[in-house]
Amino acid sequence: MSQNSPFALPFLSEIFEALRRGRHLCAEDGGPYAALRDNLDSYHDLFGHLGFRLERHPRDFFYFRGKDSLSSQSSRMALFVLILIESLADHGQPIVDTLMTKTFAIADLPHLKAARFRTYLKESGVLDEDGLRGIVRQLDRFGFCQRLTDNTFRFRPPAYRFFDLCLEVLKQQEMVQTEEQAP
What we know:
The chain has helices at residues 12-20, 31-38, 40-49, 72-90, 95-101, 115-123, 129-141, 160-181, and strands spanning 54-56, 62-64, 104-105, 145-147, 152-155. The protein is mostly helical.
C-alpha cells in the first residue's frame, strides 16, 4: 500500500470502528485522537466519500454527525445528563466545573431522589439504580464518560455536546417566547 493512499492513514480501522459505533474521540484516547487531529483533512475527505460526516467540536473532540432525530438510547443519555445539570443548578453548584471535574457515584445521583426526576426516568424505562448503571455504560461506550468502577464515573470532554443541546433548547424556548410576545 502506498504511503499516499488514504487507506494508509494511522489508526484508520480503529478510528472508523469507534466513530461508526457512535464513540466520541478526545485527547484522552491517545494515538487515534492524535492521528485524527494531525490528519483531519485526509480523514474528513475519506469519511465524506464513504458517506460519513466527521465533526470536530470546538472543545476539540471528534464524532460522526448522525441523523437529526435522537434515538431512544440517545434520548435516555440526554435525559440523564439534563437531570444532573438541573440538579446541580438547583443546588447552586457551578454546572460545567462540577460536571467536568467531579467523580460521580451512582448511589449519590439525584435521579431517583426527586419524584419529578423519577417520573421523567420512568417514561424512558429507567426505574432503579441498575437502569442508571445501564445509561452510564452507554455514556461510556459512546465516549461521553469513563466508568471508574461499576458504581462511579466521570465525564469526558465529549459531554460538552450535552451543553450544546441545552443551549439549543434554551434558544428554541426564547424564540417561542419572542414569537408569542410579538404583536
